[in-house]
Write a structure and sequence with these properties.
Elements lengths: L1 H21 L9 E4 L2 E2 L24 E6 L4 E6 L4 E9 L2 E10 L3 E6 L7 E8 L4 E7 L1
Antiparallel strand pairs: 1-3, 2-9, 3-4, 4-7, 5-6, 5-8, 8-9
Length: 140
């Protein structure tokens, strides 16, 4: 019984070690960070495409997340569900550096390339056509 517990713990710790190393580059610096997003009280529309059997009682407020890759000056947006038309804006000190309208019809990943060598504080905003809004700040 004790041997089984020790082997299970050893397996879990070895997996954690592998995952931690995969996020670190050759210099030992973590390059990717998840941007903390905050939202208003209006939930983003979740498009079901007729599949009503897979709904949940609580709808997530923010059905996407954003990851900053500081080494490549890029953002990766991971839309977990279809949410329809959204406007995406990235600004620095009130000046828009990226703007796009997207129609998210399925779970998808979108990339945003920022200007290489950029530095300072930035704001990413994502707004749905129904008034849903989420934003997050990040620095390069």
């Amino acid at each position: 019984m004790k041997l089984k517990l020790i082997l299970c713990l050893f397996g879990v710790f070895s997996l954690l070690r592998v995952n931690a190393n995969s996020l670190v580059n050759n210099d030992g610096i973590l390059d990717k960070t998840t941007i903390q997003m905050t939202a208003n009280d209006v939930p983003f529309d979740i498009l079901t495409n007729g599949n009503l059997g897979d709904h949940r009682s609580v709808r997530p407020l923010i059905p996407f997340f954003v990851v900053l890759d500081g080494s490549n000056y890029s953002l990766e947006l991971y839309f977990e569900q279809a949410i329809g038309e959204v406007d995406i804006t990235v600004s620095q000190d009130g000046v828009v550096v990226y703007s796009s309208s997207e129609n998210i019809q399925s779970s998808v990943q979108k990339g945003i390339q920022l200007e290489f060598g950029s530095s300072g504080n930035f704001l990413i905003e994502i707004e749905g056509k129904n008034g849903a809004y989420a934003c997050g700040e990040f620095a390069l």
